[in-house]
Specification:
about 650 residues; alpha+beta; seven-stranded mixed β-sheet; six-stranded antiparallel β-sheet; about 35% strand; globular
């Protein structure tokens, strides 16, 4: 380009010089245009001619602004910092661990599952391309689940079950319930998880095949409660199937009462009225029939049984069983007399019961028209008798002219006597007015009666023992007959209280093979905690065999206190779930926020935080700008149990769907 420009410039220059040296021609009529004048003129440019540009202004472009880009922000264009590459995965990597298992990732699509016995010895190793999520159901079984099916590891017998897909539910005593057969003829199978020869039955119920035929299933007191869809029938049907021989004894201990109340509530949930109870429950005598009828009255009026609580209401070392609907509505109160449960009282809509922290029983009775009776009673030691603290009555009276007002009475010495409103207010003021919050606070040791997934006897005794380890309950010292908190117990060999001894260890142990665990405490000597007839009893352990076949001991401090804080538990869970705490997402007018929170339910075992994945959703409505202040809170099925003492964690499936 420079050479061409130079040639053109030279041509113009030569032409200008030539035009200046040639005399002008006279103007004639024949004179034409410049192109006409140039016709016939040939100009040759020597090939060796060198032409330089004028140098008045220099040979370079003006440099007042410089020849480079402005340097205020550097000499290079701004560039974004490249995102740091994620660290390369290293294998094997530990994904999770529990008391009886460990999960490792060997490669991108290969996993190793190592299982341990109760002494911590390695018993079984399985490798698989599938990613299973493991959780410990109890000291008996580990549950493995993935999208293509589930397996079970038997801790005691050190064996792994086959793969089960599409099963409905299972029990920790080894039974599993699932559908089998061709798609056009499905049957319900009930079998032992590991051995068909121990138990295997098929039930041909005419199940619907073009949809999920099992609507709901529950197991309680050796009975299968089944709600299902039958072919050609739009409404679901309900049936009860006895899995074993009928026992007919429902009030032998607290655990059997819990199972019975749970089964009754489940039946009421599907058969709202006109229930033929004799079809589902066979009662052995008239006494049980009367107790059964009272539970029916309570559940039909207040609502189905859903929770239970245990509390020593009169501080005599015998724990009362409190059946609840929710966390505050009391269905019935039982105590133990001579090793057998006895009913203290039951409640319904017109006669409601409440508790306070002192163990007082409040009753509000409105069964009589325009009358309200308010009682406060204290349960006496060693029986079902109560000592009345207060009994007053309010009666609505209509006078002339009809202006309603109240009359107040007090019951004393076997008769009602009229009292002034001021006296009534003074009497009532001495007691906490009964309400839902008082019962809820009293029943703080409340546990969910999940008889469909955990045997009630096992759950009940373990919960009492856990509470004793936390100093929430008094224990009975067998040698002396005294009541004390576990931390205050003086060990005979050392003369020290358990709270003063370092290196304490404990373990849940089923010593007699009855399916109910005891607690063995190692403090130099072995101490034994067991549940007996409504009490937690402390004795020195006399073991007929060593503890080689029992779970590994865990550290214990008395009074019990955590070494891992709740904030640390949240951080451990956040790392496990991949940093989801506080993450937000939005789509279609909805904004979601994921948070990790501590569940309010009691921990599973001694010293476990239950960290749940919670999702908060906010929505916009119509043309309203901004996000609604009211938002839904839901929990996912993913939860992590974090040990308060060691920080070890175990993945588990959440028991509840919706949150607060």
């Amino acid at each position: 380009m420079k050479k061409i420009a130079a040639l053109l410039l030279a041509f113009v220059t030569l032409f200008s010089l030539y035009a200046c040296n040639v005399a002008p021609m006279p103007e004639t009529e024949e004179s034409g245009t410049l192109s006409d004048l140039m016709t016939g003129i040939e100009i040759e440019i020597p090939s060796d001619l060198e032409i330089e540009l004028p140098t008045e202004f220099g040979t370079e472009l003006p440099t007042e602004f410089g020849t480079e880009l402005p340097t205020e922000f550097g000499t290079e264009l701004p560039t974004e910092e490249p995102a740091p590459e994620p660290p390369a995965k290293t294998f094997p990597a530990v994904l999770g661990r529990g008391d009886f298992y460990k999960i490792e990732q060997l490669s991108e699509y290969r996993y190793r599952y190592t299982f341990y016995d109760r002494d911590g010895n390695e018993t079984l190793v399985e490798e698989d391309s599938r990613r299973y999520y493991l959780s410990e159901l109890s000291n008996e079984m580990v549950y493995l689940r993935c999208s293509t099916g589930s397996k079970f590891y038997d801790i005691k017998n050190k064996r792994l079950s086959g793969q089960y897909f599409g099963f409905e539910t299972f029990t920790t005593d080894g039974l599993i319930f699932y559908l089998d057969g061709p798609w056009n003829h499905r049957v319900l199978v009930v079998k032992n998880l590991f051995d068909d020869s121990l138990y295997y039955r098929e039930y041909d119920l005419g199940l619907e095949t073009n949809k999920d035929p099992i609507k709901n299933i529950n197991i309680s007191d050796n009975k299968l409660f089944l709600c299902y869809y039958e072919k050609g029938v739009a409404e679901p049907k309900f049936t009860v199937i006895s899995l074993f021989e009928e026992k007919g004894c429902y009030f032998t201990d607290y655990a059997s009462i819990i199972r019975l109340a749970d089964a009754m509530g489940y039946t009421l949930g599907y058969l709202k009225e006109n229930v033929d109870w004799s079809k589902y429950f066979w009662l052995s005598n008239q006494e049980e029939q009367e107790l059964f009828d009272k539970l029916v009255q309570s559940q039909e009026s207040i609502g189905c049984f859903s929770q239970y609580a245990v509390k020593d209401l009169n501080n005599d070392g015998v724990f009362e069983l409190i059946l609840l609907h929710g966390y505050y509505k009391i269905l019935a109160i039982f105590t133990t007399v001579d090793g057998k449960p006895q009913l203290v009282d039951h409640y319904w809509e017109e006669k409601q019961g409440f508790l306070d922290q002192r163990g007082l029983i409040y009753t509000v009775d409105t069964s009589e028209e325009k009358t309200r009776v308010f009682r406060v009673d204290r349960l006496l030691a060693g029986g079902v008798a109560v000592e009345n603290q207060l009994c007053v009555k309010t009666e609505l009276i209509e006078s002339m002219p009809p202006i309603p007002h109240n009359r107040y009475y007090r019951f004393a010495n076997g008769e009602w006597s009229l009292i002034l409103p001021e006296e009534y207010d003074e009497m009532i003021g001495k007691y906490s007015y009964p309400g839902y919050h008082t019962t809820r606070d009293c029943a703080r040791i409340a546990f969910n009666a999940l008889s469909y997934s955990l045997d009630a006897a096992q759950a009940f005794s373990k919960n009492l023992l856990r509470s004793a380890l936390k100093d929430e309950l008094l224990v009975l010292v067998a040698q002396t007959g005294e009541l004390c908190h576990l931390s205050d117990y003086q060990v005979p060999t050392t003369g020290k209280a358990l709270s003063e001894i370092e290196g304490l260890r404990y373990s849940f142990v089923d010593l007699d093979g009855d399916g109910v665990c005891e607690v063995v405490i190692d403090c130099g000597v072995l101490l034994l905690l067991r549940y007996e007839n409504g009490r937690v009893v402390l004795t020195q352990a006399e073991l007929s065999k060593p503890l080689a076949d029992q779970p590994a001991f865990s550290p214990l401090t008395l009074p019990w206190e955590a070494k891992i804080s709740p904030e640390e538990a949240i951080a451990i869970a956040d790392q496990y779930f991949g940093g989801v705490d506080g993450a937000e997402d939005a789509a279609c007018g909805t904004r979601y926020t994921i948070r990790l929170v501590l569940r309010e339910e009691p921990d599973d075992g001694i010293g476990y935080y239950r960290v749940a994945v919670q999702m908060e959703s906010r929505k916009t409505f119509g043309d309203v700008e901004g996000w609604s202040d009211c938002f839904d809170v839901e929990f996912s099925s993913e939860e992590l149990l974090v040990n308060m003492m060691t920080g070890q964690y175990t993945f588990c499936t959440g028991r509840y769907g919706r949150g607060k």
